[in-house]
Request: fold
Amino acid sequence: MLRRMILHMIQKKAIIRIGVPAIIINAKGEILLGKRSDDHVFYPSLWGLPGGFVEYGETLEQAVKREVREELGVEVRVVKTAKSFYENLPNKECSVHSIDVPHYCKITRGKPEARDETSEVKWFKSGEIKRMRLAYSHKKILREEGLI
Reply:
């Protein structure tokens, strides 16, 4: 209920949100994705990069670390910011306008497990991701970063 009320407020005020997807790659070159829960407001049941929106007063780095901790239960170190930023225009699956600033991260503590709005977590080979439909502009991010 509260989430829907907040979404309504965001949409009414035409706010542009800043997203911080985390690109996490293991030693085998696989990319970590999380499956969004079936009841998620945006892109339900789709796989995507872990991450979320920056909260007021938070730096981009603080936000990506918080989001990964909430969704996967792990601590990460930000290695670098992606080459570019990516825009998500409102569409039938997501009515929020957002700008994604992806961050490459390394897990420093813990083993990824599904938490919060994530129903499943899995490492994928780039070839597998090429055939998948991902949430937001995550596939475009991975393609333009030269990862798939």
Observations:
- The chain has one domain: 16-144.
